[in-house]
Specification:
Layout: E1 4-8, H1 14-28, H2 35-39, H3 45-52, E2 56-61, E3 64-73, H4 76-79, E4 93-100, H5 109-123, E5 128-134, H6 138-146, E6 150-160, E7 163-173
Parallel strand pairs: 4-5
Antiparallel strand pairs: 1-2, 2-3, 3-4, 5-7, 6-7
Length: about 180
């Protein structure tokens, strides 16, 4: 494998991050999300804000950008318990989302992304991470479980263009071993 690494994404990486998001979701979630929803993934305004805020890390292998992670303090509505109350560690909980192109999968890129995001988040006082994933996304569930994260019992159903999408919340430590 060529040299692999993780760096903070910059404005120069924006188009590639949007492309990875769009293409990977269209492949992985074609059965879960309506085409109309998948077609809206070309909008890069939200990505621009995330990249400029420093919340996006990119994974590279050689000269290629192969995936990314978005990691920041979790908004209250993302970390709330099923009854709407906030857990004791709500202020120190981070929201993490990882996406690696399938053709670059199973090479450690996702783990490196979470490890680097975890280091950066812990330096700001974060104590644990959460990630929302579609319940039917077995690959993402398996990935987070290999990191030691577990479903915390919280679920939500989103309106995905008129089709319900049930998501589960995974939760775990931010410190990740790179030898997984």
């Amino acid at each position: 494998m060529a040299d692999a690494g993780v760096q903070i994404a910059t404005a120069a990486d924006l188009q590639e991050i949007v492309r990875i998001h769009r293409e990977t979701w269209r492949l992985a979630y074609a059965e879960l999300l309506p085409k109309e929803v998948l077609d809206t993934l070309d909008a890069d305004e939200a990505w621009s804000l995330a990249v400029h805020s420093g919340a996006v890390l990119k994974a590279t292998e050689g000269e290629w950008t192969v995936g990314f992670a978005v990691a920041s303090k979790a908004p209250e509505e993302e970390v709330a318990n099923a009854d709407g109350s906030l857990p004791a560690d709500a202020e120190t909980t981070a929201l993490v989302s990882v996406l690696v192109e399938p053709r670059w999968g199973r090479r450690g890129h996702g783990t490196r992304l979470v490890a680097e995001a975890g280091k950066r988040l812990e330096a700001t006082g974060a104590s644990r991470g959460i990630a929302w994933i579609p319940e039917a996304d077995k690959a993402s569930k398996s990935f987070y479980e290999r990191l030691g994260w577990t479903g915390d019992g919280t679920v939500r159903t989103l309106d995905a263009g008129g089709r319900p999408l049930r998501e589960i919340r995974m939760s775990g430590e931010l410190a990740v071993r790179l030898d997984l």
